[in-house]
Amino acid sequence: MRILSLLNIYLQLPPGTQNPDDNAPLDFTDTFNIIVFIVLPIIAVILYFVWRKQKKKNGKL
């Protein structure tokens, strides 16, 4: 019975695929990571609120 449990656990992750535990933390000394993970999301949120304000102003919302 124990062998079946171990076999079932082993079969959960196909061989050759990346394990989520293998990921490295983000390196914020790299400019690309700062732009992609901090600056672009902030710009997207700001543009969304500006777009909604424009839509309300035009009476479409």
Outline of the structure:
This protein has two helices and no strands. The chain has about 60 residues and is mostly helical.
Q: Would you give an account of this structure?
A:
The chain is mostly helical. The chain has a domain at 30-61. 59% of the residues lie in helices and 0% in strands. The protein is built from 2 helices and no strands. The chain has helices spanning 2-10, 31-57. The longest helix has 27 residues, at 31-57. The protein is elongated and about 65 Å long. The N and C termini lie far apart (61 Å). Keywords: Membrane, Transmembrane, Transmembrane helix. This is Adenylosuccinate synthetase. It comes from Aestuariibaculum marinum.
Approximate shape: elongated
Secondary-structure-based class equals mainly alpha
Largest pleated sheet? none
Order of helices and strands: HH
Instruction: Calculate the mean pLDDT score and round it.
Output: 83
Give me the count of strands: 0
What is the CA-atom radius of gyration, in angstroms? 23 Å
Relative strand content: under 5%
Distance between the termini: 61 Å
Q: Count the DSSP helices.
A: 2
| Unreliable stretches | none
- Helical proportion? 55-70%
Transmembrane segments: 32-51
Keywords: Membrane, Transmembrane, Transmembrane helix
Protein name: Adenylosuccinate synthetase
